[in-house]
Design goal:
Low-confidence stretches: 294-302
Shape: globular
Distance between the termini: 41 Å
Structural class: alpha/beta
Helix content: 25-40%
Radius of gyration: 19 Å
Strand content: 15-25%
Length: 302
């Protein structure tokens, strides 16, 4: 059995001083939130204002539409487009960043592709991204697209992602101490994460698209940014998935935030919060530059 000194990530749980100053108040808010009945909790999470940094663009066109899924159900989609870019037929279309939230389906990608002209997007330049369950869905979307022969997804942003049910985690292959070490962590505890799994996958099955870490192959997936919080029960499954992606030959960037809890990105005034947002911005910019058609005489960006 490994001794504590054999573990690579346990030191990352030492609380960050900036978060330590607000931990007590944060715990009060989230304890109250997670005590709500499920319908009310969903409503609160759906209507909560986004955590935006002070320099976030606000000149946006915002539209809403319903998207029909394969099972004939509908989900709401919120579309943001910068106002300073005029879209006309024949002009270069905008890439799409698809932000996945709880309940997202792969059908959204297919709808986006089939409605590319109406949406004014480049159907060959899609980046998927999300946090927590959204990171799980984003990883799943990238896998599904590859399995279905779609090459439209050119990047994936996986912020503190859920990558494997704890009952099926491959302990023999990867370090996995964070689920117990951070069992009582702020914002997301082991108990709360288990409850989320029970709502999403009551039978705790090994389905690949719910547990991307268990995929038979992670070969030929788009570049990934994996952001990991040190004081998070999900910390080690984030590292495991990043390692598995790299082992399969994929391009992976890892950003680690020692002493920060799950969901810390909402603290946009923190040093770690600002770096968290900036890392996404820089990764997306890099992926888009890399995917742009090269002009004659230009060398590809590595």
């Amino acid at each position: 059995m490994a001794s504590p000194t054999d573990f690579r990530y346990t030191h990352l749980s030492k609380i960050d001083p900036e978060f330590a100053a607000v931990r007590e108040e944060t715990d009060k808010v989230f304890n109250m939130l997670f005590a709500l009945p499920l319908p009310q909790l969903r409503g609160m999470m759906a209507t909560a204002p986004p955590a935006l940094s002070s320099d976030c663009p606000t000149e946006l066109e915002i539209r809403y539409r319903k998207v029909k899924m394969r099972d004939e159900s509908e989900i709401a989609v919120k579309i943001y487009r910068p106002l300073d870019i005029e879209m006309e037929v024949g002009q270069r279309r905008l890439p799409l960043f698809l932000a996945a939230h709880g309940g997202g389906k792969n059908g959204v990608i297919l709808v986006a592709i089939s409605n590319a002209q109406e949406l004014g997007i480049d159907a060959n330049r899609v980046i998927v991204g999300g946090s927590s369950a959204g990171g799980n869905l984003s990883a799943s979307l990238a896998l599904r697209a590859r399995d279905q022969g779609l090459s439209c997804i050119i990047g994936q942003v996986l912020n503190t992602p859920v990558t494997c049910h704890p009952k099926h985690f491959p302990f023999a292959k990867y370090e996995y101490t964070s689920y117990e070490q951070n069992a009582e962590a702020s914002i997301l505890s082991k108990k709360t994460m288990n409850w989320f799994w029970d709502q999403y996958l009551p039978d705790a099955g090994r389905a690949t698209y719910a547990n991307p870490l268990l995929a038979d192959s992670l070969y030929d997936l788009p570049p990934a940014l994996v952001q990991i919080a040190g004081l998070d029960p999900l910390r080690d499954e984030g590292f495991a998935y990043a390692d598995a992606l790299k082992a399969a030959g994929n391009n992976v960037e890892i950003q680690v935030y020692a002493g920060m809890p799950h969901g810390f990105g909402r603290f946009t005034t923190f040093v770690a919060g600002r770096r968290y947002v900036q890392s996404v911005v820089e990764f997306v910019a890099w992926v888009l530059r890399k995917s742009e058609p090269r002009r004659k005489g230009e060398s590809p960006e590595l």
